[in-house]
Each structure stands twice: as C-alpha cells, then as structure tokens.
Amino acid sequence: MQAYAERSLAAVRKKNLEDERMRGSQRDKERKRKRKDVKKCSRKEKEKSLENHAAESGEEQIWVSRRSPSTVAHAAAP
What we know:
Layout lengths: L1 H56 L11 H8 L2
C-alpha cells in the first residue's frame, strides 16, 4: 500500500513540475508578445511625432524604405 502511495505521489509531483514548466513557457510567450506590442507602439508614436515635427516646421518629409536597394530599384523600374 505504501509503495502505491509513493508512486502516486511521485506521479503527482512529476505532473506538477510539467504544469509549472508549461505555465513558465506561457508566461515567457506573454512577456515576449507584450514587448513586441510596446515596440510597435513606440515606433508608431515616433513616426507620428516625426510627422508632426515636419508639419510644424514646414519641412518636406523624407521616407526611407526598409526594403533592400535592389528591391526598391526593381519596384521603381517600369
């Protein structure tokens, strides 16, 4: 009887450890997603502030493409 209780206790501990690992990885995924959201928001805010600054100063906006130069040249070619 005691051997059965020890085995079931060991199984419960193993299950709890697995659950904790899963929760930990889920927390990590959530943190990573939140960081991405913050980065996106700050980039949008930065672009908006640049637009506002250019509009206030009357300067012409210059946009830099994120694509590689060869892709830009290909897109510009007729």
